Structures are given as structure tokens and as C-alpha cells.
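Ticket #4471: structure output looks truncated?

Reporter: J.K.
Steps to reproduce: submitted the chain below (489 residues) through the standard prediction queue, then opened the result file.
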Amino acid sequence: MWLSLELVMQAANPTVTAENQSATLYAAVRQALRLWHETGNENPLAHLLTFQQSSGQEDVRHFVNSRLLTALETMACQHADAAKLLRMRYLDGMTADAVAYRLGMSTANLNKKQKRALYTLAAVIQEQEDELQAAHQACSLNRLEAPTYDRLFGVDALASQLLHLLATNEQPWLVVLEGIGGIGKTALADAVMRQAIAQRRFAGFGWVSARQQRFHLAGAIQTLDQPVLTADQLIEQLASQLWSADATAMPVVAPVIAGEAALARLTTRLKTTPHLIVVDNLETMGDLEALLPTLQRLANPTKFLLTSRVRLYSETATYPFAMPELGETDALALVRHEAALRNQPDLAGAAPEVLQPIYATVGGNPLALRLIVGQTRIHTLDLILSDLKAARGQAVTELYTYIYRYAWEHLDDLSRRALIAMPFAPPHGATVEHLVGVSQLPAADLRAALQQLVTLNLVNRAGALHESRYTIHSLTRTFLLEQVVQWIH
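Returned output as attached by the reporter:
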């Protein structure tokens, strides 16, 4: 239940953060009651989910007053006299002297009782807010898929940086988490979303997936039975999610809205209160060119986190956030952790020199690392690594197809020739001049090819402003030595 009068009055001590919050809420509740008979849209309690107008069918003043009245009725169940005092002072508009006379007490004593009553009402509102926030949080979490990870490795700094970028009330509004398939973009977006929900960083949350395939760690690709997501469908999904969340948390009926009506209502909501929206697997969208202007329209103060295998360099409204592969220490820690979870003590406790060939073969791609762990329940580690290098076996072929097929099919002939030459680049990276030599492509053609390869996250560009070196992931190197030859022929 809500706080007792004695505990509520302790909030007058400004030395504790929670007590400061109670005093702040007290002031906001008092100001909201003072506005009971006023017109206009001022809402001192707008920071509370309980007092955010969601139905769109009432003016703000009427909406806020109805919420205050509900809180007063709840308060009256245990503190009838205090609730009556507040009704007389604010709802009935009586002066302090008049109320004091009516209740048979001095004005000074009335003022003390009024302060205590306001703190009690603030405590009731805070309890209602906590309950509503808990329901809202549960609804937001239910919108996410079950996490595919038990624990993430090597991304704590990235997650912190990304969350900070999203939580600031300034540009960028559209952040693109980009990287090659299997590198962990969706997992990082999921982890950041869960942190934001837990910390109540935003007024609302949405998650829309454009994924067409899922890779199972048994070594098979599952094609998902859902149409290619269009911009209109994305808008309708978001509208449905956000208003169904209201229906879960508040006694309102979620409207069925679609098309321009959905976009208009969604625009009003997202431009009024900050939300965090994730669009996963952006590269599979059916009409990406139509989507990005729509997202720009919806953004600010709402933030969008987009995951994509494709870099959107030509889109000036997007902010690229690269997802790197794991370093060796984190990659092998992931292998040990996954092995321990699957009751594979030999692999979990293997010496570093036993596990190092795993990293040498697939680098820090979490999906490939987890596949190797799963395959060791059936085959020896040496055979699995040999299969990866020789592009042999269904599990390996499906892995390469899941990670690389989309990008390979979007390459022109010159870009394919340049990519095939990349394994001959030194591990620390190659210059354009070096790649011209090994690929036998004219410099102008090679630069055009690198543009496409970097855009599709097959090649990484490193270096400073006046120097460029181009590298590939270890898994990409392994893939290019055998699997791509089979695709060519």
C-alpha cells in the first residue's frame, strides 16, 4: 500500500535522493490541483506515465483532472479526512480561511494538515505510477523475442556507448548498428533495449523485425513464414504495439488503425514523447528508400536503432555505429562459457593452445563460435575446423550461406574479383596499391569495388584521415578460400 503519513512526512528532509523525488512530486501534485479549474494544456505531472495523455480523445486538463480524482478516491479509503480537505481546497475552490472555519480549526493548523494531505496524495500517485510502470515494462519486454544469448562478451563498452548515444535528447535520431552477419548486432540491440526498459529511459518502446531467416545452431537455416516487411507494414506494427501497450496498462481500448491514420497518430505520439524503436534486419526491408524518410518524420525526440548488414553511407540522416568482431580473449571466453552451459567440460577446460585454432579459423564471429561449440558434441574439433577451411558439410555450408550469400549476390563482377583477392592481403590490412597488384584490377575499378565491399561489410576500412588499409574478418578469409569457389562454379 502507499506510504503512511509519518513516512510521507519524512520526505521533507532534502538529504536523500528518494526524499527529494517525493518533495518534487509533492510540488507537482500541488500545482496540478491548483490548475483544476483552469483551461489550457499545462500538465505539471506530464513526466509520469500515469498522467501522459494517450487516448487522444480528451483535452489535457480533463485527462489530468480525471487521474487526480481517481487518486483522491483511492486516498479516501484510508485517509478520508485528508482527501476531504483537498477536495474542499482545490476541487471546490474554497479559501484556506473558509475551509479552516468549516472544519473548526485555525488556518495555521489547516495549512499543516493540507501539506500532510498533499504528501499522502503524492504517495498514492507514486504507487499508481510504480504499478503502471511495472505493467508497461512487462509489456515492453514481452514485445522482444527470447534472447538468443545467455551472456554477451566483449560488448560492455559498446553497449554503454550505444545506450548513452540513444538516451541523449539530441542528434543523432537514427542510429544504424551495422556489421556482417552473425556478428551480434541483434543481440547487442536486444541488450541495449532491455537496459533502456529497465532504466525507464523512454516513454515507450517498440521492436519490429524484418528478418527473413534464422540460423539454428544445429547447422540449418530456417526460412521464416512472413512477407517482406514494407514501410506501411512497419508503421502499422508500431502503431499496434504502442496502443496495445496502453490497453494493457490503462483502462482504454486500443484502436485499430492503419494507413495514413496510423502514420498521423504515430507521428503525433512519437514527436510528443521520446520512444526507443528498434528495426532489426533493415537490409531485408522491401522499400528501404521509402522507409528512411518516414523514420525521419517520426524521429526527434524519439530515437530509432536500426540493425543492418549494409552500411548506409549515402543516407546523411543516419549515424553509423560499427559492430566489430570479438577479440581473441573474448572469443575464447565465449567458447568456454557456451561449452560449460552445454555440459562439455573438455572444451570448457581446454588449454589456450587447444582453443586458439578456433579463433584462427573463424575469428570473433559469435555465431560461428557457437556453431563450433555445438558441433563438438558430434565431431572432433579438428574435423570441424577442417570442414570450415574446406567448406565441407551441411552445417558449414549453411553457415556460410546465412552469413555471406546475401552480400555475395549483391556484388558485381569487379567487386567479386576484388573480394577474392582479399585473402592475399596481410592481416594488418592492405593499401589500395597492394590490392591493385594482387587483384590485377585497374586502380579506378578497385576503388569502385572497395566502395561496394565496404558498404556490404565484407571489407573493413581502417587507418587515419590520410591513410587507408583494408582488412577482412578471419571467417571471411576462411570462407573465401574454399566456399566462394563452389558458388562461382
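Triage note (M.O.): checked the attachment and the full C-alpha cell line is present. Residues 1-16, 247-256 have pLDDT under 50 and may be disordered.
Status: closed, working as intended.
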